[in-house]
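Hi all, long-time lurker, first post. I run a small reading group and we've been trying to get comfortable going from sequence to structure in the token notation. Rather than ask abstract questions, I figured I'd post a concrete chain and ask someone more experienced to write out its structure so we can walk through it together at our next meeting. Sequence below, copied exactly:
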Amino acid sequence: MQATIWHNPECGTSRKTLAILQETEGVVVSVIEYRKQPFARKKLEQLFQDAGLTPREALRTRGSPAEELGLTDEASSERILDAMVAHPILVERPFVETDKGVRLCRPQEKVTEIL
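-- Answer (accepted) --
Happy to help. Here is the structure in token form:
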């Protein structure tokens, strides 16, 4: 099985999720450090749709400039997506995609739902 993780190595949950993937027999992992290789808007839209999340639900507010950018109140999904493309730190992490689906793996055990 192929698994792709949008990873931030500075995030403990992201590191733990990656470890679960690497330790699972039969899983081939692709790691995308999204702060170095930012999201394409279409990919973000697809990940959110497949995970059953809105852009607001996937918005990282802690440790990000979300509030300063005016995204925490009445910002539209379009505005949040635009900001996420410009500032990848705004995307909650980690997202994992496999043949079985997409999950925002918070907590990290959620990854087992798609393995």
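A couple of things your group might point at:
The CA atoms of residues 47 and 53 lie 8 Å apart.
The radius of gyration is 14 Å.
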